[in-house]
Fold:
Amino acid sequence: MERIAEGEYAVMEVLWDESPLTAAEVAERVPLDRGWSLPTVKTMLSRLLAKGALAHEQDGRRYLYRPAIRREDYVAEESGRLIDRMFGGRLTPLVAHFAARDRLTPADIAEIEALLKELKS
Amino acid sequence: MERIAEGEYAVMEVLWDESPLTAAEVAERVPLDRGWSLPTVKTMLSRLLAKGALAHEQDGRRYLYRPAIRREDYVAEESGRLIDRMFGGRLTPLVAHFAARDRLTPADIAEIEALLKELKS
DNA sequence: GCGGAGTGATTACAGCTGTAGTCAATAAGG
DNA sequence: CCTTATTGACTACAGCTGTAATCACTCCGC
Structure:
């Protein structure tokens, strides 16, 4: 499974959220701040098809697109890659890093604690 | 501060670990599995200089290179970016994701719990 | 002094990415 | 039927990236 680029990821997000969709529908749903034209979205869709990240089925003279990989798997791969590179493959240093940067609120801390507690049972 | 590419990051890691170094010394220390020639390493160094990620000082007819940005800051930016994109900017879902994928050992859990406990005091 | 080794600078080039434009076919509307 | 809007396919092109090769200079050993 080939690598998905940043811009392509925005298209995947749309389809993970709702599918199948036509190219035009995808274009409507892509975040506005991208400022993409319809041709741009079509290019993304073609490339994602070529990469095997999307599948399409014929619907008259159009295609309906849907994800061919699970968001869960993609997220696991990407976050695993980052954690391997920057935190020696372990989650704890990442949490420590966030904590040191004051990016953890007391509510976050409570939430994570609850989650871990759940895990142990 | 411009974006650092994946390959360039490998060079940064070397210099974060030890600096200042000459180009040849960096090349020696880059992970072998990259299989880079000396010219390749020099290209990386030039680009990182141009991006402002490295600084250099003259040493006779050579340069000594050293980081111009802190690893800590770079890591914060990159991991923040990923967490924003994939986990809505919050750490908890990432932890949950790791847990769901069985990437957390009991030892990890204990470690994170200790860390959080520390934070609260 | 002279030739070779090391050094930065410059150039090369293909593949990926962001961002379209163009074109041919076709469906739909008048 | 004929025009127009829609759609996928193909083409374009610059900037970034990985991966060098080449070149000109200079210092060191002979």
Notes: Residues 3, 5-8, 35-37, 39-40, 43-44, 47, 60-61 of chain B lie near DNA strand D (CB under 10 Å from a C1'). Strands of chain B lie at 54-59, 62-67.
